[in-house]
Amino acid sequence: MKEIYILFTDPETWIAKSIRLFTKAKYNHVSIVLSNDFREMYSFGRKKINNPLSGGFVQEHPKQGIFAKKSDIRCLLCSLTVTDDQWEIINQYLVEMKENSDKFKYNYFGILGIVLNISIEHGQRYFCSQFIAFILEQAGIYQFGKPHALIAPHEIQTLPILNPIFEGNLHEYYEILDKPIILSGY
């Protein structure tokens, strides 16, 4: 058994703000984290910090990219226990996506599809929660029962398989990773 993490954030980009208008959700971006030191953190988002239209598969870090623009990024970090086989399936998908990252694009029309309740899928195009839902299903961790392109971040946040371990400032949490702590509130 291994632990992976699902990180929900509010990066306050124009896309996240647009999604919030419709969902009213606190967190509008989601990433998968394979290591508790945040070295392996992946999602679909901006490839270039100042160009919101250059989206695709990205390896994220709390102190780089869009997360580096603000010092007070709100987050919710949840743990998820998976089998070794499930972890390996997730890792294989991520390795393939890293090696072929230029082929994976952001599904901008899919965001509109969520608002209209129409599944808009385009092969190798994903938005963040569509990607996380896809990965969780492919690994046999959770079945959503609807198209991945209709899954918003707040829907993943409510999954009963997630164990919330921290809510607060992403940068503050990242700074204390090296120190043994007991997280309160959960």
How would you portray this structure in words?
InterPro entries: Papain-like_cys_pep_sf. This is Permuted papain-like amidase YaeF/Yiix C92 family enzyme. This protein is an alpha+beta fold. It has a single domain, classed as endopeptidase fold (from Nostoc punctiforme), CATH 3.90.1720.10. It contains 6 helices and 8 strands; from the N terminus they run βαββββαβαβααβα. The strands form 2 sheets. A 6-stranded antiparallel β-sheet has the order 4-3-2-1-5-8. A hairpin with a 2-residue loop joins strand 3 (41-48) and strand 4. The chain starts with a strand and ends in an 11-residue tail after the last helix.
Keywords:
186 residues; Permuted papain-like amidase YaeF/Yiix C92 family enzyme; Papain-like_cys_pep_sf; disordered C terminus; endopeptidase fold (from Nostoc punctiforme); alpha+beta
Overall 3D geometry? globular
Fraction in helix? 25-40%
Tally of structural domains: 1
CATH topology: endopeptidase fold (from Nostoc punctiforme)
Strand % is 25-35%
Total strands = 8
The description of the largest β-sheet is: 6 strands, antiparallel
Which class in CATH terms?
Alpha Beta
Instruction: Kindly report how far apart the N and C termini lie.
Output: 22 Å
Instruction: Summarize the helix and strand pattern as letters.
Output: EHEEEEHEHEHHEH
**Any idea what the CATH superfamily is called?**
endopeptidase domain like (from Nostoc punctiforme)
Mean pLDDT across the residues is 87
Low-confidence stretches: 179-186
Radius of gyration (CA) equals 15 Å
- List the strand order in the largest sheet: 4-3-2-1-5-8
- The CATH architecture comes to Alpha-Beta Complex
The number of helical elements comes to 6
Structure classification: alpha+beta
InterPro entries: Papain-like_cys_pep_sf
Protein name: Permuted papain-like amidase YaeF/Yiix C92 family enzyme
Organism: Bacillus oleivorans
